[in-house]
Fold:
Amino acid sequence: MSLPRYREIARELKEQIQVGHYKEHQTIPSEPELAKLYDVSRMTARQAINELVYEGVLYRVKGKGTFVNHQKYEKSIHGLTSFSEDMIQKGFKPSSRLISQTVRLANEIVASKLQIKEGQEVIELKRVRMADEEPMAVEIVYLPVQIIKSLPDDIGAISLYDYIEKELGLLIDYSIQEIEAISLEAPISTYLEVEAGAPCLLICLQSYLKSGQIFEYVESYYRADRYKFIQPAYRKGI
Structure:
């Protein structure tokens, strides 16, 4: 069964945006221009635009036109990959800005997440994660010193997982993740260059080595205007 004409046009416009024909915040053709381009009525052209506005792909500015919205990065929560690996796979240049790197004593919450005793030493690593120089997330990482003795001075510029696997020779196995929608507060909002109160996706994860040890607990604050998470779902046989 064929799609309605307005949905065919909406799909084609969306594909053109995805391949970069229309850039973020660039205006798209007006309703009369689209109607002429696709040989349809203005009502059909309007329906196509409305479809993409509803999806968040486009946005309107009264008196100025319709523009391409920020495109959200898709991150699968099926599988354990680093931020750097995700961005490279999507064709972006990943980078990090180091906020702080300190050794501290684990409080009750961190100790519980790492399954160590309260008061044991952990490395606390805070970084702003960026794609093509745009802030995407803030990560606060806790690493037990009994497993990760130290980190290199340039850890803000390299992949933590690469360092753990290639330099330390440890085998990363899996993680348990929790996702929560929250409102950002300072200073996290400042690091992400958004206003306090902006929506955020908080991911808390515990990551395990092949040995069964927990080697990290992470709190990652992702900009909700730039990220969406996807998870495949399979129906089990009854």
Observations:
- The domain at 73-230 is CATH 3.40.1410.10 (Chorismate lyase).
- Residues 5-18 form the longest helix (14 residues).
- The mean pLDDT is 87.
- Helices lie at 5-18, 31-38, 42-55, 83-89, 108-114, 160-167, 188-191.
